[in-house]
Amino acid sequence: MLDTQTTPTHWFPSNIDALNRRFTAAGPQALLRWVTTKLGDDVALSTGFGLSGIVLMHMLSDIRPWTPIFYLDTDLHFAETHALRDELQGRLGITIQEVHCGLSLDDQGKRFGPKLWQSEPGLCCHLRKVEPLKRYLANKRGWITGIRRDQGATRAHAPVVSWDEGNQVVKFAPLAHWTREQTLTYIHTHHLPLNQLHAEGYASIGCWPCTAKTAAGGNERSGRWAGREKTECGIHVAARGYQ
Ligand code: SF4
User: Fold this and answer.
1) Is residue 151 domain-resident?
2) Least CB-packed of 31, 77, 79, 150 within 10 Å?
């Protein structure tokens, strides 16, 4: 019996460590089935259209295709990413909601100067990703994300189930313990589409101003904010200022 405490706005499983162990062993489909049954539309899948997101969207399309799925639309995604979004919606019979910060690039430029992604990328991510996510999750009790431990040092200890202090919801990472090879095998086995940019040398794809081709020998995310100390946009980092 899984013990939980529920309030109108928060849901905190008191046995979060047990859930972690259980769903690390049981696998991603078991976790998706359990959490979507338990929370219904109060849990949502966030995707940036990377490999793990494609796997999770496909699994959800089989388990509960009407589960809320969203992406953070920064106005700075590649055209190829939008093409993949449209193809996934058509192929999987899912609706992927766009969550926007409400600040146009023009207005951002007037308030903070042009090309904020160059002058202060931490603030740009905060405005266009971190805050919109927080506002969206204010109406949820949990969110599902595709992060994996093998994506880089900042994700090396990502739990499968955890409490997201910054957003005050439970965070589920069903593929935290999967490898990049496992996600690719799943994608190929199920004949799922990929972002065309992967074939052009981009291992991880975010906003176009902050995404470069992956250097030889670099980890999956080494092309993101290349040449800077920044390695995360901030949505997977506990709230302690910008990164
Ligand atoms: S990834 Fe770059 S362009 Fe996108 S929100 Fe962050 S700083 Fe801005």
Assistant:
1) yes
2) 79
